[in-house]
Design goal:
Chain lengths: ~110, ~110
């Protein structure tokens, strides 16, 4: 059974710092892994999608890596800003096309 | 292009009642998925519809059902509501099913069961 874990559950960092969010999954047989952002009371916004054959994806200040063999992914945020405060969710897409989400890391950037 | 829309945004019901939630996907998207989000369980997959057919289902009781119309709009129904059904219900759309692709999420419907 695929399980997705995100640690830590919450994180506070001063503005301007670089930070890393972690995601681990138990079954390496995945199609892809996505990172989403969720603002309070709102839906999810897709940030990055990494196909199983890829090692990383970049978008602006965000970089996501994928290591299937170890069942890990990281989301790197450079030069954090207060507007980055949100909950970040990791999700893996299984071979049966179901998507399993982690419970998220609640990020707070301190001005 | 308009995003995924969900109606209503907020809903308050009492135990035993039933509720219907609506989702309009992005124009041209034919797959609609539904998720339940709670603080304890996080985001859990309910079901996915593609071309008016349910193609995938999560581990939820039969009280949770859905359907999709020919214009790809989808509705989700929960019968005999329980307190534990209080959650944010999210729908997501994508172009096709069966192809691992980015899903676009709506803002959600906040359901409170009293």
């Amino acid at each position: 059974k695929q399980e997705v874990t995100q640690i830590p559950a919450a994180l506070s960092v001063p503005e301007g710092e670089n930070l890393v969010l972690n995601c681990s999954f138990t079954d390496s047989a995945i199609y892809n892994l996505q990172w989403f952002r969720q603002d309070p009371g709102k839906g999810l916004t897709s940030l990055l999608l990494i196909q199983s054959s890829q090692r990383e994806q970049t978008s602006g200040r965000l970089n996501a890596s994928l290591d299937k063999s170890s069942g890990r992914s990281t989301l790197y945020i450079a030069a954090s800003q207060p507007g980055d405060s949100a909950t970040y969710l990791c999700a893996v897409s299984r071979r049966d096309d179901k998507i399993i989400f982690g419970k998220g890391t609640r990020l707070h950037i301190l001005p | 292009k308009a995003g995924v829309t969900q109606t209503p945004r907020y809903l308050i019901k009492t135990r035993g009642q039933q509720v219907t939630l609506s989702c309009s996907p992005i124009s041209g998207h034919r797959s609609v998925s539904w998720y339940q989000q709670t603080p304890g369980q996080g985001l859990q997959f309910l079901f996915e519809y593609f071309s008016e057919t349910q193609r995938n289902k999560g581990n939820f009781p039969g009280r949770f059902s859905g359907r999709q119309f020919s214009n790809s709009r989808s509705e989700m129904n929960v019968s005999t509501l329980e307190l534990g059904d209080s959650a944010l219900y999210l729908c997501a759309s994508r172009l096709f099913a069966g192809v691992p692709d980015t899903q676009y999420f709506g803002p959600g419907t906040r359901l409170t069961v009293l």
